[in-house]
Amino acid sequence: MAVSCAVPTAVYATGTSTISAGAGKVVDTQDETLLVAEAQTGAEIIEVGISNGSEEEGSADEESENLTEAPENEAIAGYTNLGIAHVDNYLNVRKDPKEDGEILGKMPKGAGCEVIDVTNGWAHIKSGKIEGYVSTEFLYMDDVARERAQEFITLTATVNTTTLFVREAPSTNASVITMVPIEEELEVLEQLEGWCKIALDDEEGYVSTEYVDIAEKLGHAITLKELRYGEGVSDVRVAMVNYAKQFLGNRYVWGGTSLTNGTDCSGFTMRIYEKYGYSLPRVSRDQARTGKKITSDQMKPGDLIFYGKGGTINHVAMYIGGGQVIHASGRRTGIKISNAFYRTPLAIRRIIND
Description:
With 354 residues, this protein is mostly beta strands. The chain has helices spanning 142-148, 224-227, 235-245, 265-275, 284-287, and strands at 2-6, 18-20, 26-28, 45-49, 82-85, 90-94, 103-108, 112-119, 122-127, 130-135, 139-141, 154-159, 163-167, 176-181, 185-192, 195-200, 203-208, 212-217, 222-223, 257-258, 262-263, 292-293, 304-309, 312-321, 324-330, 334-339, 345-350.
């Protein structure tokens, strides 16, 4: 089965007083929200293929206990019967409770779920947008899940307006670092009067509490649509994306270049490209000068997206298709998958000419 998805086109101009959102609209940055113009027509349509897999990706060193329903007043991060993915990378969520069942999505390490029922070594769960079955061999449940939950819970601010400004200081007079879209989830570092300090990759910023919902949250399952890169993509791009995903959850280390022991954002993209015979400069601002400049509607898996602060590039991610990027985000989250427009791109470059 194939699913069609469009990647919207958005062009931004940096500055401290006004920001262009495309279609001729200019927004005053004193206002914390931005109504983004409709995406330009003619955006590239990517056919997204969904395939099966059979191996559970993870390892467990502790057996789950029998499911017992927790009292309603003991709900944790919104879950009454909490389950937590106990894997090194991802836990497959299947359509049916069997090893060769169709894969609907994947739960990252430490992601939470509501356990609906347990039968013959399979847990019927709901996590994020997915309801399906996971092997209990790779799932913390009951008291173990409740005890381990604090290792993975983060205080999260979820954007509840179309687009929200992230500022350098807790004031509407402060410079805008970037913009984040509706439903984007930001880790809260500190709550202030009318503002909260949030983590943004390996930086910090401030958002108005008027436009976010703050709650304790666990990660959740990711659908295959969110993970797929699309059809009609060259073999090297497919291989590059699959190779990069092997390192999801690994550590972020500033100045590092090891995909297993720790890397920063540009070290991550440098090593991924190096694997396939491409040589990239060491730092993100230099990587942004390589290859060919492209627009968001031209993006293919493997292309590089650059972000920054005050018009200066300081972060890079690799596009993986479906509107998603993979990147070494920061010390708190490590290598992760994000929305490609989780913050305002400053540049998009194509290194692979195919």
